[in-house]
Amino acid sequence: GQQLNQSPQSMFIQEGEDVSMNCTSSSIFNTWLWYKQDPGEGPVLLIALYKAGELTSNGRLTAQFGITRKDSFLNISASIPSDVGIYFCAGNMSQGNLIFGKGTKLSVKP
Amino acid sequence: GAVVSQHPSRVICKSGTSVKIECRSLDFQATTMFWYRQFPKQSLMLMATSNEGSKATYEQGVEKDKFLINHASLTLSTLTVTSAHPEDSSFYICSASYGTERRGNTIYFGEGSWLTVV
Fold first, then answer.
1. Which residues of A touch B52 (CB under 8 A)?
2. Which helix (H) or strand (E) holds A10?
3. Integer Cα distance of B9 and B65 in angstroms
4. CB of B48 within 8 Å of any CB in chain A?
5. How many CB atoms are closer than 10 A to CB A10?
6. Would you say B76 and B84 are in contact if contact means Cβ atoms under 8 Å apart?
7. C-alpha distances in angstroms, B15 versus B7, B37, B83, B88, B116?
8. What is the rounded CA–CA span in Å between residue B36 and residue A77?
9. How close, in Å, is residue B97 to chain A by CA atoms?
10. What's the CA angle centered on B25, arms B72 and A97, to 5 degrees?
């Protein structure tokens, strides 16, 4: 099915470094959502964005809904080992019908 | 925030038997829930949309007679894998839409259910 273009596919960084990942699409979305998934568990919502241009923070995480409504980025500042996991972006066109990116696998070296 | 719970978290069943997975919205009503399947190291694949009080809508390629979905109440949807085979072994995840007029819809996921068919 349709998917968002999420990059990078994987990142291997040093503890304390900042992280940035983004998603782009040819389609316009009403909502952008960012999730983190640990192995063997369901995705956990990190940040939800509802309006074009919206910039939202959740602790060390910051995400923005692009002005064109076709893209979004997620930044993690001062990464720590527990940030390890797979991060997914998701766009919501209608009520709950999410389109997912392929995920960004984050590894953090202590 | 909204909480979605799945049960069981892990289940092992024999080939040819059926197994039921439950998805509950614990603190909100969900007229629509979604069922996903996830293969190792891959993103989530939408299987079907579960609508309270009506038939589920299945994605292309998903057998509706094999993956039975029942959304009997505003807080419960069930996925039954019928006549399970080893290739049905996978991680199944449900989600529910929670929305407010002010903020719009946000999707919350259950913890996921590991199915192993032996």
1. none
2. strand A10-14
3. 23
4. no
5. 11
6. no
7. 20, 19, 7, 10, 9
8. 31
9. 5
10. 85
Q: How far apart are CA A5 and CA A90, in angstroms?
A: 10
Q: pLDDT (tens digit, 0 to 9) for every residue of chain B, 118 residues total?
A: 679 999 999 999 999 999 999 999 998 888 889 999 998 888 889 999 988 888 899 999 999 999 999 998 889 999 999 999 999 999 999 999 877 655 667 889 999 999 999 9
Strand blocks (E) in chain A: 5-7, 10-14, 19-24, 31-37, 44-49, 55-58, 61-65, 71-76, 85-92, 98-100, 104-109
- Report whether A106 contacts A19 (CB < 8 A): yes
Query: Which tokens hold the place of A78?
Result: 């001062």
Query: By 3-state DSSP, what share of chain B in percent is helix, strand and coil, each rounded to 5?
Result: 5, 55, 40
Total beta-carbon pairs less than 8 A apart between chain A and chain B: 67
Which two structure tokens, joined as six digits, stand for A84? 């390890």
